[in-house]
């Protein structure tokens, strides 16, 4: 009996050792496959997440594009359509006048053609040949104490006018404006040579936000209250009338300026003699405040200036100043202009 049990025990022991040896290998193999599978699953999850993110980003871009398209369509709907060009006609211009300008730049032009046919009669003397008083009412040129009357006829178109302007806003939001205007008041005796009247500068300035530099109406005067007349200037008796090269700063209704100095003097009992001097060392300094409403306009202004004359007759320097107030009141379909001034510094460009 003992001889049969021993071999059986040995076989069972060998089988147990075999199983103990093989099972760790199986467990190890299963662990490696699981890790590889987990790695693949993690990679797939990462790729799915990337696809989801890309899709969300694409949807955001689509939504933004749709918003921009909606805004453009809204602006197009608000912009009035351009007038249709009649069949057989082409547009006046095929390209923009300012192709290299900033977006939103506007270009404008204006003016008028004016022809005057006038006859002037003076009863106490004659106006000189080519005198401005034959085209405009200039009080100081009215002849007084002359020997005979005179009648003069003048036809001309020298007060025709042309202007150009440009407006733009920079990328920083700064507003820029330029303006220039000419008439043809030059060359008083041009009618002797085929009426070739030269151009004369009325306005030429640039503005940047609140600043202005160039030639335009003096800050001391209010050109809007000059009375309307067929004459290009109208009545100038005592009127403040001057365009000056200047530097001006405006903030709301308040403005200050430094302007080109010029002194005109008339000697005592000197008749129509006028002494001009541009030797002033100090610019004219002005300040103004305006009020506007449905009732009209009203303004107050002040000026401080230096008088300096240097000629064969005199060499003198003095200081002066003046204040002025005036406005234009709307009465139904009419307007009533009025102006008062006081002080030795007031200027009258055409009086």
TrEMBL record:
It comes from the Bacteria. InterPro entries: DcaP. Residues 1-29 form the signal peptide. Keywords: Coiled coil, Signal. The keyword Glycoprotein does not apply. Residues 27-61 form a coiled coil. This is Porin. The lineage of its organism: Bacteria, Pseudomonadati, Pseudomonadota, Gammaproteobacteria, Lysobacterales.
């Amino acid at each position: 009996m003992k001889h049969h049990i021993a071999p059986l025990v040995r076989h069972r022991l060998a089988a147990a050792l075999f199983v103990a040896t093989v099972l760790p290998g199986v467990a190890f193999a299963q662990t490696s496959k699981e890790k590889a599978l987990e790695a693949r699953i993690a990679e797939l999850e990462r790729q799915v997440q990337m696809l989801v993110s890309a899709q969300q980003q694409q949807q955001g871009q689509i939504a933004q594009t749709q918003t921009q398209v909606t805004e453009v369509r809204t602006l197009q709907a608000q912009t009035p359509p351009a007038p249709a060009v009649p069949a057989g006609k082409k547009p006046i211009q095929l390209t923009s006048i300012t192709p290299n300008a900033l977006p939103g730049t506007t270009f404008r032009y204006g003016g008028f053609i004016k022809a005057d046919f006038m006859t002037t009669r003076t009863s106490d003397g004659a106006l000189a040949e080519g005198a401005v008083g034959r085209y405009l009412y200039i009080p100081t040129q009215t002849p007084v104490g002359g020997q005979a009357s005179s009648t003069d006829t003048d036809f001309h178109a020298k007060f025709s006018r042309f202007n150009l302007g440009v407006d733009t806003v920079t990328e920083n939001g700064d507003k820029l404006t330029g303006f220039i205007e000419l008439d043809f008041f030059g060359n008083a005796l041009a009618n002797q040579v085929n009426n070739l009247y030269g151009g004369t500068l009325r306005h030429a300035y640039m503005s940047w936000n609140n600043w202005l530099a160039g030639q335009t109406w003096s800050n001391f005067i209010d050109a809007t209250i000059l009375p309307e007349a067929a004459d290009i200037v109208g009545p100038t008796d005592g009127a403040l009338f001057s365009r000056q090269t200047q530097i001006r700063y405006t903030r709301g209704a308040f403005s200050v300026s430094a302007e080109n100095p010029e002194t005109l003097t008339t000697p005592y009992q000197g008749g129509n003699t006028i002494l001009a001097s541009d030797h002033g060392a100090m610019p004219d300094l002005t300040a103004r405040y305006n009020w506007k409403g449905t009732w009209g306009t009203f303004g107050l202004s002040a000026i401080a200036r230096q008088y300096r004359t240097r000629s064969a007759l005199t060499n003198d320097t003095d200081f002066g100043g003046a204040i002025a107030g005036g406005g234009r009141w709307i009465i139904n379909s009419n307007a009533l202009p009025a102006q008062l001034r006081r002080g030795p510094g007031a200027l009258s460009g055409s009086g």
